[in-house]
Amino acid sequence: MEKFIPQLKTDKEFTNKIIRKYHFGGENTGKVASLCDISLPLVSSACYYVWKKADTEITYDEYAVCLVTLGTAFDKLVDLYAENNCLLEAYMLDCIGLEFMTRSYEQLVKHIQTKYCKWGTKLDFLGDTYPVDMMARLMENFTGTGVLINDEMMLKPLKSVLFLLPVSDQEQKADACRICTNCGNVNCMFREASGSNRQHDISKLSGISRISSLPKNNGMPGGSYGIRQIFKNESVK
To answer: Which residue, 145, 156, 120, is CA-closest to 4?
Structure first.
């Protein structure tokens, strides 16, 4: 197992991307910027990866099994706001965490390219090409990282993800980190793929009644797993 530490930062570009990508109104720029600055010192972003070859279950010729996490303190910050009924701020932090994760993916792919002269072809999250129930076995590669998995295949810390990174010795023109382009969920409210003309307005989100109006998943408010945790606690077993 190898480890890589991304170098994350918050600046005007980072804030503006969150405002644009997650459809917050411009009046929320100051609040988002403040939460970015508050949360950054609590992020302990780490990327772990192990190299694998094709086998009977995963047929990529060569790939890395990758685990990315923001650590436990970020989860605690989100919980703090949620427990004090500051649900808009908790939601904003969840979006900020997603962007920290995206930056971590990007840096990991570049790190692997620089160190090994291997180009990632895509980020393959379990549930796309390969089933989610493979996660428990793959997580056996990451004992000692502090990331745990429960019986429902959820990782904790919540801002953690495991994915496969198939690689090629040939330079790739396409960006492996264009997750939206490679994702089939064209109705995702946060989709950034070119040609998508879906319009969503989350700028008026101001409380639990507004959050509850988001698309639902098994009777719970939609959006990312992290924000759903505000409404239902999951325990790692």
So the answer is: 145
